[in-house]
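EI: anyone free to look at a 144-residue chain?
SC: sure, send it
EI:
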Amino acid sequence: MGSPILQPVAALVLWSFVMWAWLYATRIPAIRAANRPMDPAMSAADLNAFIPPQVRWKADNYNHLMEQPTLFYATALGLALAGQGDGLNLWLAWAYVGLRVVHSLVQALANIILLRFAVFMVASLALLAMAIHLAIAVFRVHAI
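SC: here you go
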């Protein structure tokens, strides 16, 4: 049987796909509404210049879900392999996932930067605690 910490890992992967779908559900209509040709030489900045900010926020958040959460995945999988994927680490993992969902919603709906940053920092602290627990588990010196 797998480690319980794999549940929040799966949840965050699925949430990333929710944001992926949301970004395309808003971006494609916005591109059509702009009625501009899609030039392959166009940069992301060129594209963003004619897409409304509320549409860009979803894509920005999807990109954010491809950044720091990679450390979460590695840490959670390490904790699972070390047999430390339950108890406090499981709670921290669920807290991290919940906070990342809140971060996504704040960014995608209102993009209140100070609130988004505060949520990001609390999530980062949960991830840091998990990383410290992983380091303790894998660097632990066993008495002979």
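EI: The chain has one domain: 6-139.
SC: 👍
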